[in-house]
């Protein structure tokens, strides 16, 4: 199935963006996010970017105060996901220009639009930045 | 009400509440008429609150209703928020189906994208049913832009994964191949995901996609025609490369891969590289390439970059499945052991896994010693796993047993808290079964007792071993019975109640071994016994009383407290435990599929069970402990009766590894407790339990429960034989004993059946309290008319029984019947022959009808193939007769090969209605005990059930208890896809 969820969390552990590709109820999600965030925030720069948690493998990347966490299953290539995170950030960067936490907080819908263009049903659909941003730009113009 | 809940929950969260309440009230007062803009705004706020982890139980309706808004911005919000908030089973989703469908078949591309994404993310069965053909059309339509088609590909993937039976993918291989000619990278990336799913299901059908994949790779590798937008840091779409390589791994082929790359500097290329390595592994390339790979991985695990180290270790673990390179991997042992000390727990875990996997007789000593050393510094999260793994390795690969004892005692010493009881039970078993080991073990135990603070588990082991074997040390320094007693007794105040019984037994044994008796010691021990005679713990009290009484008896004590007999050999519970945990995490990946193929290549595995969840590791893990031979086992069993006949006999444990082994504690403690019940309890329980479990499948066992309950009235004739006869014909005697005869007569029409049950009283006295009820399986609806309470002398009563078949299943209905004759109550449970084949109607098909049908049912789950071994050997004509008698009509002449049979039939049930089933059986004239069977029908469950049913009919079962039911019942619902895709069986069939 590939990607199970994409999470963006700040240093305080607050979720800023969450998209799940399998349904978990609120309780499960809350518990999962809490556990994973605790595990990932505790790690330092010298450690690798993969954390195993329950049956997920969490691939994460840190950008200043923001953590991007992607849960995948065993069928996924970890490094590809790691770079996918970077691609996501670059895409946001291109749109917002030097993206920061507040950009995502106040433009949650845009973050979702981008993610929706990039990932569907846990698989990567599109990796071209201009294609990803095309619908958003259209709307901005309108 | 909602407001109340809301205010309670969020009282403390002022910040959120201030945003929340106006939002909520606005949303709820929608009759006032919110503008679309407002709705949009509030729905986003709602999603934000939901994301923060608060339960949002209102406004779902608003989100769904936005889907049908005419304008793009609103519609988009509706779609996205709906797919975040709802799951596929949500009722509201149903309301949207029509809108979604209109959007999909509509002309507006952007709407199409939105709708496809929604279905792709949360589409359930209803969506699949109404939308699958439309989505398929979009995907291959030449008029659609790539924008839409890439979404359609993944949407189809979702529908196919969720409901493979609804999505018709016949003939899709050509279309997939066409799709892969696509130039657009977005479409390619998503089509590749779809291809991976399709191929993993049935690789035969997608052969023609293979060259296309290679072409795509070539295009990427040579960087031809790759738009700059898809180049990521100079590398042409690494994600597509990775996916394509992944897809290639599902094709079972050996082709010269020229996809290997050299080491680049960044992650994206590493990602590709790792995937290429995985492919090389899968293709089983020549040895040189393999060793190059391992050398590369060896470099990786030594680099500074932690991600690469982690993946290097992980891939090396996967490499272990390739036998030839294991030696090369061993060269990196030192580096791997260093990784065990890595500051990163993710890496440490990988290293531990790898070490565990690579361990064998040659390096076990080093590895286990490393693990033990590491144990004292390891973090708590890993200790339990570590100690279990160390114990297993020590047991599996021990070069000599004294080393094994050393290891386990060290293990207990260093990580007592993490050593489960299983581990120390096992060491006691070994010591008991190996006389050479006993003095050594006793000596070691004695040494450990000298340590100032020892773990309670260590007290248990030492006390037990010294109790049994301390007399072997008698000549050593500080090993007189008295000294041993005092050093053990020192520990008594510090231990818990579960340990005290063991200590008491030890005292009794020491007392017995002290020859000539030492008065002083005797009095000391008696004093302890009498102290514990009033203990509140029943076990301790019982032992104290009994030992005290026994030790007064003198000579009798010698007999009763003689040395423990040997334990019967059995599979290590540790290994079993490890297997269980591994089986839990079973999932199919390309590498594992491949390993299964390997396992069956060897053709040593005669196990008939479908390979669901039995991973290759398990099969390898079943290595018996090398030291124990069969001879030992026999001695062990004889020992039971000879060595201490005066005692309650140690149960000869069932030797089958599959039978649940009773608690090990029972073995160690059982014989010491003089009273019987604890000893006999576990012996009978598992047998009864297993009898019930398998009752429906294994013939001999089916009678067992009957005999137990009504052992005074013996049935006349074999119930099982009668049942089998009635499976093939429609009237006859189902059961007979001296008092009653039960006959049945049946008529079948499509999925309806009508039985008449004849109950005949054979006596001159009436039968009273007659009761009959049907215990129907879930797939049958049964209705039994009233059964009279008494049957007059020499009379026969008739009871009609209606049966309706709801869906295909091989489960059986049971007739629970009881009556009273005089004072005797007889109760029998009879299987009703309303079996699978009763709902079949033979039908002849001609070649013109057969072949198109056969071809249209392509591949699992509708068409299943299996190689059946252990078939009752019979000539082809007899097999044809058997099939005909099962109402599977053999159609002669359809298959040109005289050794093959083709049969057809119609199956009736309420869910499937009339469904044509086609069967092809290929036999091998040289070996009649195996054949290949292919079953096809329009319903996956039916195909599976029919295949299993035929298998049950043709497989030879020599001793039912030893060959467990073809399939454990609980595994049935999930197993069809795994059973089908067992490539090992397919491969073996081709050989």
From TrEMBL, chain A:
Domain AP complex mu/sigma subunit: 3-141
InterPro entries for this protein: AP_complex_ssu, AP_mu_sigma_su, Longin-like_dom_sf
UniProt KW Transport keyword: yes
Record's keyword terms, sorted: Membrane, Protein transport, Transport
UniProt xrefs under SUPFAM superfamilies: SNARE-like
Pfam families referenced in this protein's UniProt entry, alphabetically: Clat_adaptor_s (PF01217)
Origin: domain of life: Eukaryota
Intracellular or extracellular location(s): Endomembrane system
Primary localization: membrane
Family in the record: Belongs to the adaptor complexes small subunit family.
Name of the molecule in the record: AP complex subunit sigma
Automatic annotation (TrEMBL), chain B:
Topological category with respect to the lipid bilayer: Peripheral membrane protein
Record's keyword terms, sorted: Coated pit, Endocytosis, Membrane, Protein transport, Transport
Major subcellular site: membrane
Entry keyword annotation includes Membrane: yes
Matching Pfam families: Adaptin_N (PF01602), Alpha_adaptin_C (PF02296), Alpha_adaptinC2 (PF02883)
Annotated localization: Membrane, Coated pit
Entry keyword annotation includes NADP: no
Assembly and interaction partners: Adaptor protein complex 2 (AP-2) is a heterotetramer composed of two large adaptins (alpha-type and beta-type subunits), a medium adaptin (mu-type subunit) and a small adaptin (sigma-type subunit).
Family recorded in the similarity comment: Belongs to the adaptor complexes large subunit family.
Protein role: Subunit of the adaptor protein complex 2 (AP-2). Adaptor protein complexes function in protein transport via transport vesicles in different membrane traffic pathways. Adaptor protein complexes are vesicle coat components and appear to be involved in cargo selection and vesicle formation. AP-2 is involved in clathrin-dependent endocytosis in which cargo proteins are incorporated into vesicles surrounded by clathrin (clathrin-coated vesicles, CCVs) which are destined for fusion with the early endosome.
Record protein name field: AP-2 complex subunit alpha
Source lineage: Eukaryota, Viridiplantae, Streptophyta, Embryophyta, Tracheophyta
């Amino acid at each position: 199935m590939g990607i199970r969820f994409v999470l963006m969390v700040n240093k305080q552990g607050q979720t800023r963006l969450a998209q799940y590709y399998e349904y978990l109820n609120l309780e499960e999600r809350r518990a999962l996010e809490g556990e994973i965030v605790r595990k990932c925030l505790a790690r330092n720069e010298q450690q690798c970017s993969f954390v195993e948690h329950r049956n997920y493998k969490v691939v994460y990347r840190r950008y200043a105060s923001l953590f991007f966490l992607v849960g995948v299953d065993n069928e996924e290539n970890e490094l590809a996901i790691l770079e996918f995170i970077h691609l996501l950030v670059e895409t946001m960067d291109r749109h917002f220009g030097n993206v920061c936490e507040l950009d995502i907080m106040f433009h949650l819908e845009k973050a979702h639009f981008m993610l929706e263009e990039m990932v569907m049903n846990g698989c990567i659909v599109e990796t071209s930045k201009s294609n990803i941003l095309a619908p958003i730009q259209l709307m901005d113009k309108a | 009400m909602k407001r109340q809940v809301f205010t309670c929950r969020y009282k403390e969260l002022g910040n959120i509440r201030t945003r929340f309440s106006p939002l909520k009230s606005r949303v709820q007062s929608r009759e006032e008429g919110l503008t679309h803009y407002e709705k949009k705004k509030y729905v986003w706020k709602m999603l934000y609150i939901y994301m923060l982890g608060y339960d949002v139980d209102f406004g779902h309706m608003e989100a769904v209703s936005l889907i049908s808004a005419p304008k793009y911005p609103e519609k988009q919000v509706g779609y996205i928020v709906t797919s975040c908030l709802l799951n596929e089973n949500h009722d509201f989703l149903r309301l949207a189906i029509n809108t979604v469908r209109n959007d999909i078949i509509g002309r507006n591309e952007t709407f199409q994208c939105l709708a496809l994404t929604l279905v792709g993310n949360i589409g359930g069965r209803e969506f699949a049913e109404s939308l699958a053909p439309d989505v398929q059309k979009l995907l291959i339509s030449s008029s659609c832009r790539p924008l839409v088609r890439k979404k359609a590909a993944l949407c189809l993937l979702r529908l196919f994964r969720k409901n493979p039976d609804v999505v018709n993918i016949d003939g899709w291989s050509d279309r997939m191949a066409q799709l892969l000619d696509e130039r657009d990278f977005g479409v390619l990336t998503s089509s590749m995901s779809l291809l991976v799913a399709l191929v993993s299901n049935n690789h035969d059908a997608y052969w023609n996609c293979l060259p296309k994949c290679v072409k795509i790779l070539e295009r990427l590798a040579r960087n031809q025609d790759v738009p700059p937008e898809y180049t990521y840091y100079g590398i042409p779409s690494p994600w597509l490369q990775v996916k394509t390589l992944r897809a290639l791994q599902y094709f079972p082929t050996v082709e010269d891969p020229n996809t290997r790359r050299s080491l680049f500097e960044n992650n994206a290329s590493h990602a590709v590289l790792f995937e290429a390595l995985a492919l090389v592994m899968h293709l089983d390339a020549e040895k040189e390439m393999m060793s190059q790979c391992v050398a590369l991985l060896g470099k990786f695990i030594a680099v500074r970059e932690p991600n690469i180290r982690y993946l290097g270790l992980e891939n090396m673990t996967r490499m272990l499945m390739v036998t030839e390179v294991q030696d090369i991997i061993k060269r990196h042992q030192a580096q791997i052991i260093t990784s065990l000390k890595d500051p990163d727990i993710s890496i440490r875990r990988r290293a531990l896994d790898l070490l565990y996997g690579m361990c064998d007789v040659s390096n076990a000593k080093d590895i286990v010693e490393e693990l033990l050393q590491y144990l004292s510094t390891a973090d708590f999260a890993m200790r339990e796993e570590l100690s279990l793994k160390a114990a297993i390795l020590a047991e599996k690969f021990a070069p000599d047993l004294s080393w094994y004892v050393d290891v386990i005692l060290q293990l207990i010493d260093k990580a007592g808290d993490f050593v489960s009881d299983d581990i120390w039970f096992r060491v006691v078993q070994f010591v008991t079964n190996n006389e050479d080991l006993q003095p050594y073990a006793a000596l070691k135990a004695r040494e450990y007792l000298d340590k100032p603070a020892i773990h309670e588990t260590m007290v248990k082991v030492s006390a037990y071993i010294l109790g049994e074997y301390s007399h072997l040390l008698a000549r050593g320094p500080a090993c007189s019975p008295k000294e041993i007693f005092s050093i053990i007794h020192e520990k008594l105040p510090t231990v818990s109640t579960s340990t005290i019984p063991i200590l008491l037994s030890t005292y009794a044994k020491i007392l017995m071994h002290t020859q000539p008796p030492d008065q002083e010691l005797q009095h000391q021990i008696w004093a302890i016994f009498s102290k514990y005679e009033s203990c509140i713990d029943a076990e301790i009290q019982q032992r104290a009383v009994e030992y005290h009484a026994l030790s007064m008896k003198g000579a009798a004590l010698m007999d009763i407290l003689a040395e423990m007999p040997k334990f019967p050999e059995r599979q290590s519970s540790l290994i079993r435990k490890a297997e269980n945990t591994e089986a839990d995490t079973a999932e199919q990946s390309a590498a594992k599929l491949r390993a299964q193929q390997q396992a069956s290549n060897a053709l040593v595995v005669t196990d008939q069970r479908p390979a669901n969840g039995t991973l290759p590791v398990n099969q390898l893990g079943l290595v018996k402990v090398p030291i124990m031979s069969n001879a030992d086992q026999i001695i062990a069993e004889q020992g039971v009766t000879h060595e201490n006949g005066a005692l309650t006999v140690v149960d000869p444990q069932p030797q089958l590894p599959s039978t649940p082994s009773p608690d090990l504690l029972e073995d160690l403690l059982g014989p010491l407790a003089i009273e019987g019940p604890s000893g006999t309890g576990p012996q009978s329980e598992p047998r009864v339990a297993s009898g019930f479990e398998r009752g429906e499948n294994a013939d001999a066992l089916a009678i067992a429960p009957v005999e137990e309950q009504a052992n005074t009235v013996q049935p006349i004739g074999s119930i099982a034989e009668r049942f089998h006869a009635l499976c093939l014909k429609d009237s006859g005697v189902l059961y007979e004993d001296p008092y009653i005869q039960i006959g049945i007569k049946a008529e079948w029409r499509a999925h309806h059946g009508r039985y008449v049950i004849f109950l005949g009283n054979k006596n001159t006295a009436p039968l009273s309290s007659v009761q009959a009820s049907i215990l129907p399986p879930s797939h049958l609806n049964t209705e039994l008319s009233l059964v009279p309470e008494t049957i007059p002398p020499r009379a026969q009563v008739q009871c009609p029984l209606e049966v309706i078949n709801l869906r295909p299943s091989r489960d059986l209905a049971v007739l629970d019947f009881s009556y009273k004759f005089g004072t005797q109550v007889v109760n029998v449970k009879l299987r009703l022959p309303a079996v699978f084949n009763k709902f079949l109607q033979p039908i002849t098909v001609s070649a013109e009808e057969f072949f198109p049908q056969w071809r249209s049912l392509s591949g699992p789950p509708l068409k299943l193939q299996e190689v059946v071994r252990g078939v009752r050997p019979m000539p082809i004509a007899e097999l044809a007769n058997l099939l005909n008698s099962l109402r599977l009509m053999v159609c002669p002449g359809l298959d040109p090969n005289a050794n093959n049979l083709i049969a057809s039939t119609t199956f009736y049930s309420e869910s499937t209605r009339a469904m044509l089933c086609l069967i092809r059986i290929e036999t091998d004239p040289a070996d009649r005990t195996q054949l290949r069977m292919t079953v096809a029908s329009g319903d996956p469950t039916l195909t599976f059930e029919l295949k299993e049913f035929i298998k049950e009919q043709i497989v030879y079962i020599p001793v039912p208890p030893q060959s467990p039911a073809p399939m454990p019942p609980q595994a049935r619902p999930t197993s069809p896809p795994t059973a089908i895709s067992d490539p090992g069986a397919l491969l073996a069939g081709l050989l």
